[in-house]
Amino acid sequence: MSEKTALTLTINGKDHAISVEPRRTLADAIREDCGQTGTHIGCEHGVCGACTVIVDDAPVRSCLMFAVQAEGKKIRTVEGLADGDTLHPMQQAFMDNHGLQCGFCTPGFLMLAVGVLEREPDISDEDLIDVLSSNLCRCTGYQNIIKSVRAAAQEMRK
Description:
Helix content: 25-40%
Number of helices: 5
Radius of gyration: 16 Å
CATH class of the largest domain: Alpha Beta
Order of helices and strands: EEHEEEHHHH
Distance between the termini: 52 Å
Number of strands: 5
Strand content: 15-25%
Mean pLDDT: 97
CATH superfamily of the largest domain: Beta-grasp domain
Low-confidence stretches: none
Number of domains: 2
Structural class: alpha+beta
Protein backbone atom coordinates (compact mmCIF):
# COMPACT_ATOMS: atom_id res chain seq x y z
CA MET A 1 0.00 0.00 0.00
CA SER A 2 1.40 3.38 -0.97
CA GLU A 3 1.63 6.30 1.39
CA LYS A 4 -1.28 8.64 1.73
CA THR A 5 -1.18 12.37 1.13
CA ALA A 6 -3.15 14.78 3.30
CA LEU A 7 -4.98 17.45 1.34
CA THR A 8 -7.98 19.71 1.47
CA LEU A 9 -10.53 19.75 -1.34
CA THR A 10 -12.80 22.77 -1.55
CA ILE A 11 -16.11 21.48 -2.91
CA ASN A 12 -19.07 23.83 -3.31
CA GLY A 13 -17.40 26.30 -0.94
CA LYS A 14 -16.83 23.76 1.84
CA ASP A 15 -13.40 22.40 2.79
CA HIS A 16 -12.93 18.63 3.05
CA ALA A 17 -9.70 17.55 4.77
CA ILE A 18 -8.90 14.07 3.46
CA SER A 19 -5.99 11.68 3.18
CA VAL A 20 -5.62 9.79 -0.09
CA GLU A 21 -3.17 7.74 -2.08
CA PRO A 22 -1.57 9.95 -4.77
CA ARG A 23 -3.20 7.83 -7.50
CA ARG A 24 -6.75 8.43 -6.16
CA THR A 25 -8.93 10.06 -8.80
CA LEU A 26 -10.79 13.25 -8.06
CA ALA A 27 -14.06 11.42 -8.86
CA ASP A 28 -13.39 8.76 -6.22
CA ALA A 29 -12.26 11.35 -3.66
CA ILE A 30 -15.37 13.49 -4.23
CA ARG A 31 -17.69 10.49 -3.87
CA GLU A 32 -16.02 8.27 -1.31
CA ASP A 33 -13.86 10.59 0.78
CA CYS A 34 -16.05 13.72 0.72
CA GLY A 35 -19.49 12.09 0.52
CA GLN A 36 -20.68 14.06 -2.52
CA THR A 37 -22.32 11.24 -4.47
CA GLY A 38 -24.05 13.36 -7.11
CA THR A 39 -20.97 13.07 -9.29
CA HIS A 40 -21.38 9.79 -11.16
CA ILE A 41 -18.65 7.48 -12.40
CA GLY A 42 -19.28 5.78 -15.71
CA CYS A 43 -16.46 4.61 -17.94
CA GLU A 44 -13.50 5.72 -15.78
CA HIS A 45 -11.64 6.53 -19.01
CA GLY A 46 -12.79 10.10 -19.69
CA VAL A 47 -15.10 9.05 -22.50
CA CYS A 48 -18.67 9.28 -21.14
CA GLY A 49 -18.60 12.57 -19.20
CA ALA A 50 -20.79 11.33 -16.31
CA CYS A 51 -18.13 12.49 -13.82
CA THR A 52 -17.87 16.06 -15.13
CA VAL A 53 -17.38 18.68 -12.41
CA ILE A 54 -16.26 22.31 -12.62
CA VAL A 55 -12.71 22.97 -11.40
CA ASP A 56 -11.68 26.63 -11.28
CA ASP A 57 -14.56 27.54 -13.62
CA ALA A 58 -13.77 24.90 -16.28
CA PRO A 59 -15.61 21.61 -16.86
CA VAL A 60 -13.30 18.70 -16.04
CA ARG A 61 -13.73 14.93 -16.23
CA SER A 62 -12.97 14.08 -12.63
CA CYS A 63 -12.03 10.47 -13.45
CA LEU A 64 -9.01 11.80 -15.37
CA MET A 65 -7.74 14.11 -12.64
CA PHE A 66 -5.98 13.05 -9.47
CA ALA A 67 -7.39 14.38 -6.21
CA VAL A 68 -3.98 15.80 -5.30
CA GLN A 69 -4.09 17.93 -8.48
CA ALA A 70 -7.29 19.61 -7.26
CA GLU A 71 -5.92 20.89 -3.97
CA GLY A 72 -6.21 24.66 -3.75
CA LYS A 73 -8.71 24.73 -6.59
CA LYS A 74 -12.41 25.58 -6.44
CA ILE A 75 -14.50 22.48 -7.23
CA ARG A 76 -18.21 22.62 -8.05
CA THR A 77 -20.35 19.51 -8.21
CA VAL A 78 -24.00 19.04 -9.06
CA GLU A 79 -24.81 19.40 -5.34
CA GLY A 80 -23.58 23.01 -5.59
CA LEU A 81 -25.91 24.10 -8.40
CA ALA A 82 -29.14 24.68 -6.48
CA ASP A 83 -29.49 27.57 -4.04
CA GLY A 84 -31.31 25.90 -1.17
CA ASP A 85 -34.67 24.80 -2.57
CA THR A 86 -34.27 26.97 -5.67
CA LEU A 87 -32.96 24.96 -8.59
CA HIS A 88 -30.28 26.33 -10.89
CA PRO A 89 -31.81 27.40 -14.24
CA MET A 90 -30.08 24.41 -15.89
CA GLN A 91 -31.63 21.95 -13.44
CA GLN A 92 -35.06 23.54 -13.90
CA ALA A 93 -34.72 23.46 -17.68
CA PHE A 94 -33.83 19.74 -17.62
CA MET A 95 -37.01 19.11 -15.61
CA ASP A 96 -39.23 21.37 -17.73
CA ASN A 97 -37.95 20.01 -21.05
CA HIS A 98 -37.68 16.32 -20.12
CA GLY A 99 -33.89 16.37 -20.57
CA LEU A 100 -33.37 13.21 -18.57
CA GLN A 101 -34.67 9.68 -18.41
CA CYS A 102 -32.65 7.34 -16.18
CA GLY A 103 -30.63 10.34 -14.90
CA PHE A 104 -27.24 8.65 -14.72
CA CYS A 105 -25.60 11.02 -17.21
CA THR A 106 -27.50 14.09 -15.99
CA PRO A 107 -25.02 15.45 -13.39
CA GLY A 108 -22.27 15.38 -16.00
CA PHE A 109 -24.43 17.14 -18.60
CA LEU A 110 -25.53 19.75 -16.05
CA MET A 111 -21.97 20.56 -15.01
CA LEU A 112 -20.64 20.56 -18.59
CA ALA A 113 -23.41 22.86 -19.80
CA VAL A 114 -23.21 25.23 -16.80
CA GLY A 115 -19.42 25.42 -17.05
CA VAL A 116 -19.50 26.17 -20.76
CA LEU A 117 -22.34 28.71 -20.59
CA GLU A 118 -20.78 30.58 -17.66
CA ARG A 119 -17.58 30.98 -19.66
CA GLU A 120 -19.24 31.59 -23.03
CA PRO A 121 -22.87 32.76 -22.55
CA ASP A 122 -23.31 33.57 -26.24
CA ILE A 123 -21.93 30.29 -27.58
CA SER A 124 -23.29 29.48 -31.03
CA ASP A 125 -25.86 26.73 -31.37
CA GLU A 126 -23.45 24.70 -33.50
CA ASP A 127 -20.66 24.99 -30.92
CA LEU A 128 -23.06 24.16 -28.08
CA ILE A 129 -24.16 20.96 -29.81
CA ASP A 130 -20.51 20.12 -30.46
CA VAL A 131 -19.67 20.55 -26.75
CA LEU A 132 -22.67 18.51 -25.60
CA SER A 133 -21.75 15.69 -27.99
CA SER A 134 -18.71 14.99 -25.81
CA ASN A 135 -20.95 13.49 -23.10
CA LEU A 136 -22.80 10.23 -23.61
CA CYS A 137 -26.44 9.41 -22.89
CA ARG A 138 -27.94 6.00 -23.54
CA CYS A 139 -31.60 6.93 -22.99
CA THR A 140 -32.75 10.27 -24.35
CA GLY A 141 -31.67 10.59 -27.97
CA TYR A 142 -30.16 13.99 -26.96
CA GLN A 143 -32.91 16.19 -28.44
CA ASN A 144 -34.44 17.09 -25.07
CA ILE A 145 -30.98 17.58 -23.55
CA ILE A 146 -30.18 20.13 -26.27
CA LYS A 147 -33.61 21.74 -25.84
CA SER A 148 -33.02 21.94 -22.07
CA VAL A 149 -29.59 23.52 -22.42
CA ARG A 150 -30.88 26.06 -24.95
CA ALA A 151 -33.71 27.03 -22.58
CA ALA A 152 -31.32 27.34 -19.64
CA ALA A 153 -28.89 29.39 -21.72
CA GLN A 154 -31.62 31.98 -22.33
CA GLU A 155 -32.49 32.01 -18.63
CA MET A 156 -28.84 32.30 -17.56
CA ARG A 157 -28.27 35.29 -19.89
CA LYS A 158 -30.97 37.30 -18.03
